[in-house]
Amino acid sequence: MTLASKAQPSPTPLEGHDGSGRRRAPRLVRILLPAALILVWLAGAGIGGPFFGKVGEVSSNDQTSYLPSSAEATLVQQRLSEFRDSDAIPAVVVFVGDRELTEIQRDALADAVAELAALEGVGDGVSPLLPSEDGLAAQVFVPLTPGELRDTIDRLGETVRAAVPDGVTVYITGPAGFTADLVGAFAGIDGLLLGVALLAVFLILIVVYRSFLLPVAVLSTSLFALCVALLAVWWLAKWEVLLLSGQTQGILFILVIGAATDYSLLYVARFREQLRVTQDRWVATKGALSGSFEPILASGGTVIAGLLCLLLSDLKSNSTLGPVASIGIVFAMLAALTLLPAILYAFGRAAFWPRRPAFEPEVVAAENGMPSRGAWAFIARQVKRRPRAIWVATTLVLLVGAAFATQLNASGVPQSDLVLGSSQARDGQVALGEHFADGSGSPTYVIAPENSLQTVADVLLAHPGVDSVSVTSADSPSGAAPVTEDGIVAFGPPGTPTPEPTIASGDVLLQATLTDAADSAAAAETVRELRTELGGTSGVHIGGVTATAIDTNDASIHDRTLIIPIVLVVILLILMLLLRSILAPVLLILTTVLSFGTALGVAALLFDHVFRFPGADPAVPLYGFVFLVALGIDYNIFLMTRVREESLGHGTREGILRGLAITGGVITSAGLVLAATFAALSVIPVLFLVQIAFIVAFGVLLDTFLVRSLLVPALGYDIGRAIWWPSKLSRVRADPQRTVSIDKEPSE
Predict the structure, then answer these.
(1) Half-sphere exposure for 226 (CA within 13 Å, toward CB)
(2) What's the CA gap between 61 and 146, in Å, rounded?
(3) Among candidates 43, 48, 39, which has minimal Cα distance to 236?
(4) 279 with 353: CB under 8 angstroms?
(5) Where a domain ends, among 150, 184, 218?
């Protein structure tokens, strides 16, 4: 075809009609509607943008607040305020000398401790200095008021370190120390995480489009969707409709950016196709929306359906993620179907500069909608020539990786290992364990009836995993009085009155210091055994840091077992409705589950033998499954909706080849974007997020380059039209007059 023929103008539409003869929208509507959409989204982003720095005001990283209301640790946590004047979080300040502490050093430390009560953020009840039996260390318990824990601990550390004598090292640990570490780890979520994710997406889009304006338009769509989604989520959290945490916030950011960009890529591909056959931007916009509306809606709906299954979770950290992330997906779809079309309509072909799509209807007609050159046309030809060999080989490769999935240790990790990198609280816990009982500062709380106090105390003291027992008492200077087998011990010189336990609703609060670190497996075993031994005593409940971890892990395992099958069934039903078939959705689900198993198996090998992670939270496989199945099925939806569209006119086998060649570029780009955005989660030094980042990013790449590109097309091609069973399409043969084969050979 000559350049002259390419440049020939299209027929001029009739006045008031588009190129197809349909009546065209009034010019005023074509101007005002896109402008109004852009202004509405701009206003929403302008209002929602400032809320990025305010998420901390409505979020919580307290693990107990995410437990189900029926959990034993939750019941204990809710009643602690009945026995204590405040809901302060204990910090443990540990002083370690390079040799045995002298009397002068101990006096200097005691003077420093005496000044702590005056610090901002420090509550009442700072304990006296408690030296270790070996004389090499001392500790003090400091109650900190909830709120700006990290700032309070920084002030506490600066004050103490400035006052301690030479030769003494200071650590701050305990529940407050670990919580501050977690807060610090999430501190970069508004800036660093968002910046890395946006930069990664922008660079990928630059490479994909080789344009500057189009990546800006797509990225603006994603960012505006995130701003408005965050605005909605923030207010729902403010009104206590939703529970928000740093973990949920990070996933929301990544999910919205990745999903909105994926949907935008699909729309841009359709818009480019339309610009090749029409010069009218309004007609091109309508055609692009018509071609992308169903797959975007189906894709987003599938993700939302999978996420909402998390509402069945016992853990609030899981159940609240469902609606939070679903809100993000809704705005991602809305932005891709309203804001981006308005922006591209406004710019037209200029949005693609310098690679503007040419108006070439004759070329498109000659191609019959089927690219004959390029990497994806080549892959389609290979699928046609050796379908069975390809799907069998890829299945075997995936099965080998999936075989290692059972090696993933997802039984929980110690609290001290949640934050990666250096940790003052972790170092302090180690120092504490070298000179005191490992459980110091993180006691196990036991609520018991007043008349069972001594009985319960005796059971606790008889267990080898318990170092000491005390009872909460307002009469005691430290707020708790020791309990031995002979009863409550008084502080002070002989003759000092024995303190009376604090009683609330007929119950007392015992505090058991464990011999093992509160977040260790040994401590968890101790608490489980105590619950069994005290299970026959009416009204006894055990809580605290260790009990909270136990109840959280148990609830996570229950959720994993319950939710995964439900997600599979829900997504299977959606695919059946979308594809009007039973066999095709079943095969798509099986291939996606196989891909997930492979991602989990590879993750297990790397986590254990390369990264040397201490294990994984029980929720890691659940989150990985929900994201990979819900998001991984996206690419199969993008592929199979186009395959079905092509199969209606060209037959199933030809439709599969055409669908693969046509959608190959856009789906690959979408997969790279989503993998990059999830990989960005790894910049937050929290073990859970780093593991989710790897599993989802690796799994998405598997789905993009292996499952969707080779396994699904080859398997579908080998099966043929029966894949659409039991719909009519499974009984319709291809029309040879309409079929143009991938390699220009007559179709079957």
Answers:
(1) 27
(2) 11
(3) 48
(4) no
(5) 184
Whole-prediction pTM: 0.84
Predicted confidence at residue 194, as pLDDT, reads 84
Cis preceding-peptide flag for 726 (omega within 30 of 0): yes
Q: Where are the beta strands (DSSP E) in 120-230?
A: 130-131, 137-144, 168-173
* 3-state secondary structure string across 436-495: CCCCCCCCEEEEEEHHHHHHHHHHHHHCCCEEEEEEECCCCCCCEEEEECCEECCCCCCC
Q: Measure the CA–CA gap between 258 and 175, rounded to whole angstroms.
A: 35
Angle separating helix axes 619-650 and 687-702, nearest 10 degrees: 20
Question: DSSP labels for 225-253?
Answer: HHHHHHHHHHHHHHTTSS-B-HHHHHHHH
Alpha-carbon distance of 669 to 442, in angstroms, equals: 49
Residue 137 lies in a domain: yes
Cα 8 to chain centroid, rounded: 52
- Nearest Cα to 409, choosing from 648, 613, 263? 613
Give me the CATH number covering residue 532: 3.30.70
Task: Select the more confidently predicted residue: 736 or 47.
Answer: 47
Q: At what angle do helices 619-650 and 652-679 cross, to 10 degrees?
A: 150
CA distance 156 to 550: 31
* Per-residue pLDDT reduced to its tens digit, 310-321: 999 888 878 888
Task: Work out the burial of residue 162: count CB atoms within 10 Å of its CB; fewer than 13 is exposed, 13-18 middle, 19 or more buried.
Answer: exposed
Q: How confident is the prediction for the chain on average, in pLDDT?
A: 86
Where would I find the beta strands (DSSP E) of 525-615? 541-544
Q: CA 627 to CA 600: how far, in whole Å? A: 13
- Determine the Cα–Cα distance for residues 300 and 304; give it in Å rounded to an integer: 6
Cis peptide, bond prior to residue 464, ω within 30 of zero: no
At 353, which amino acid appears? W
Q: Quick one: pLDDT at residue 62?
A: 64
141, part of any domain: yes
Q: State the Cα–Cα distance between residues 729 and 748, nearest whole angstrom.
A: 16
Q: How many whole angstroms separate alpha carbon 575 and alpha carbon 581?
A: 8
Which tokens belong to 594?
């196989």
SS3 at position 610: coil
Whole-number Å distance between alpha carbons of 627 and 341: 27
CATH number for the domain spanning 92: value is: 3.30.70.1110
How many angstroms separate the CA atoms of 159 and 172, rounded? Answer: 12
Q: Do residues 658 and 376 touch, judged by C-beta distance below 8 A?
A: no
Q: Is 42 exposed, middle or buried (0-12, 13-18, 19+ CB in 10 A)?
A: middle
Which of 500, 528, 550 lies at the terminal end of a domain, its last residue? 550
d(CA 35, CA 299): 27
| Domain, as residue range, for 137 | 86-184
Residue 536 lies in a domain: yes
Position 729, amino acid: L
C-alpha 632, offset from chain centre: 15
Q: How far apart are CA 340 and CA 213, in angstroms?
A: 12
Confidence check: pLDDT of 369 > 70: no
Q: Per the domain annotation, does 160 fall within a domain?
A: yes
Tokens representing 190? 């508004």
Number of domains in the chain: 2
Q: What angle do CA 245, 251, 254 make, to 5 degrees?
A: 140
Sign of CA dihedral 696, 700, 701, 703: positive
From CA 150, how far away is CA 180, in angstroms rounded?
5
pLDDT interval class at 37 (50, 70, 90): very high
Residues 6+ apart with CB under 8 A from 433: 517
| Token pair for 56 | 């901390």
Place of tokens 């006691």: 443
Strand partners, 139: 94, 130
Q: What is the dihedral of CA 667, 669, 670, 674, to 10 degrees?
A: 140
396 exposure class (CB count in 10 Å sphere: 0-12, 13-18, 19+): exposed
The closest of 462, 515, 452, 510 to 485, measured between CA atoms, is 462
